[in-house]
Amino acid sequence: xxxxxxxxxxxxxxxxxxxxxxxxxxxxxxxxxxxxxxxxxxxxxxxxxxxxxxxxxxxxxxxxxxxxxxxxxxxxxxxxxxxxxxxxxxxxxxxxxxxxxxxxxxxxxxxxxxxxxxxxxxxxxxxxxxxxxxxxxxxxxxxxxxxxxxxxxxxxxxxxxxxxxxxxxxxxxxxxxxxxxxxxxxxxxxxxxxxxxxxxxxxxxxxxxxxxxxxx
Length: 216
Ligand SMILES: Cc1cc2nc3c(=O)[nH]c(=O)nc-3n(C[C@H](O)[C@H](O)[C@H](O)COP(=O)(O)O)c2cc1C
Fold this sequence. Notes:
Number of helices: 5
Bound molecules: flavin mononucleotide
Radius of gyration: 20 Å
CATH architecture of the largest domain: Roll
CATH topology of the largest domain: Pnp Oxidase, Chain A
Structural class: alpha+beta
């Protein structure tokens, strides 16, 4: 960015598509799958990249991007290090939020819910499909901890490579997945003059989804 760039003047008009409560599926996971498929069709780059927000034991929030690795009737799943900052925060408070932004479609999806750890068997089944380098990396990196230098990490990797040699690299016990079971999901479609369409699903009594329109 050059020194004179006026950030406040950066402006985009959204006009590709629209959204109404009558257009959407009766449950948000089906609606999400439809939008995700459309994101794939227009070749959004990394459509499964999502911002994950957690809170610490004092209620202070933190957010980072992780990759969605599955959607089913349980919710939205991703994989990480259970001993990372996010893992520690989710252990103390399982409330979490996710945000997807598919710019090419002028769309945002916001998810709020509760995280549950996937069992080790399910995480292992995914882990063994990952490239060997990523599997070794999961053993070598004490995610979120302070390290003195890049060299420390590379030395740890060499050690781990020696340890496993030609053998399979199993899923470490500190590595695994979470599924976020949603209680609120909002679909946002950009519209002209900032009069965007917002459709929200809220889980009510007897596990029924209530669908409403929100003001932009
Ligand atoms: C595009 C992208 C995808 C990422 N995917 C993951 C992921 O699936 N799992 C993960 O643990 N970290 C992923 N990261 C790294 C996280 O953003 C973060 O740096 C890391 O998980 C440590 O976060 P924490 O210290 O808050 O626990 C990704 C980062 C980017 C930019």
